[in-house]
Amino acid sequence: MPNHVRYAIYLVPEEGPLARFGAQFLGWDVLTGTNVPQSETLALPRPLSELTATPAKYGFHGTIKPPMRLARGRNLAGLKAACHALLAEETPISIGKLRLARLGSFLALVPSRDAGAFAALAGRLVTGLDPFRAPLTPEDRARRKPDSLSENQRRLLDRWGYPYVLEEFRFHVTLTGRLTHADAVKVEAALAPILASLLAEPLTVTSLCICGERLDGRFELVERIPLGA
Known about the structure:
Blueprint lengths: L3 E8 L5 H10 L1 E2 L4 E2 L12 H4 L1 H4 L5 E7 L7 H12 L5 E2 L3 E6 L2 E6 L4 H13 L9 H6 L7 H10 L12 E2 L6 H18 L5 E2 L1 E8 L4 E8 L3
């Protein structure tokens, strides 16, 4: 396995139609750590590789514990053990059906109903695994553009290394980078008929994944850990 520079806890759909769609849409399969040919048949305003350039390296996922460098004295074996211990106390959670939505200037899949129980689980992972997180460097903090954040988001950034955790957490699976309004309308129209069947059933979270950032900046699955096992 290649060396990883950061680790994250992601929700990654298990192998199946939704996971295959995500890999083919983004051009990167986080489950196998391989490139996937992107579709050339969608009626899109720009090449799909341009529309997905930002999220592609992360793969098709929803972030639970944001990417972090390991703290001094911590290692992957310890992170795995801690994740197993925390998730052994959990049970599978339904977050309902996902739907396509605009979040600011990008498109993502989001829960169609309140997912408070899942947000609470995410919060327990963020706080419970924080001893494994190396402190933010000044450069890391600056990249988050703290002046553009709310006071509470800055507080979360400084305490937990990321501004969108705990009460600011909103689960989503990113599909595109920044889009103009006109481009977003066209991409939504192209995706709607494809996603209709893929998102017809509620999503039940039965496992979470440790994913690692490779030296080339792309994320891949390290280990899938079941809830309640």
